[in-house]
Design brief:
With 103 residues, the protein is mainly beta. It has one domain (3-101). It is 14% helix and 39% strand. The protein is built from 1 helix and 6 strands. The strands form 2 sheets. A 4-stranded antiparallel β-sheet has the order 1-2-3-4. A hairpin with an 8-residue loop joins strand 3 and strand 4 (81-86). The relative contact order is 0.16.
Length: 103
């Protein structure tokens, strides 16, 4: 990829990562910086996989829902694979702190 295209690709990824303005509960407001998306793209000639991570407000902006996936190509006798993650970050009144759980 030429230098101007690389700069444009970097700018587009940065713009996609700009957080949305969800109205999170005051207790989760310090985690607002997490909201957005990020894409993993291998560089030229790289054999690494690709992936994407997103952090979105959910349940009427009462929780933060991070989800991600990674796709790994086959190499050195290993099969291609895909890995997905999902989590929910909410305010725990019992612990008086943010709490995360996976299904």
């Amino acid at each position: 990829m030429t230098r101007p295209r690389w700069a444009l690709a970097t700018l587009l990824v940065a713009l996609l990562a700009v957080p949305a303005r969800a109205q999170l509960p005051p207790a989760l407001a310090p985690l607002r910086f997490l909201l957005g998306a990020c894409e993993a793209v291998p560089g030229p000639g790289a054999t690494d996989g690709t992936g994407r991570a997103t952090f979105q407000a959910g349940l009427q902006d009462r929780v933060i829902v991070p989800s991600s996936y990674a796709v790994c190509p086959p190499r050195k006798g290993r099969l291609a694979s895909r890995h997905d993650d999902l989590m929910v970050i909410r305010w725990s009144t019992r612990r008086a702190a943010p709490s995360a759980s996976s299904p």
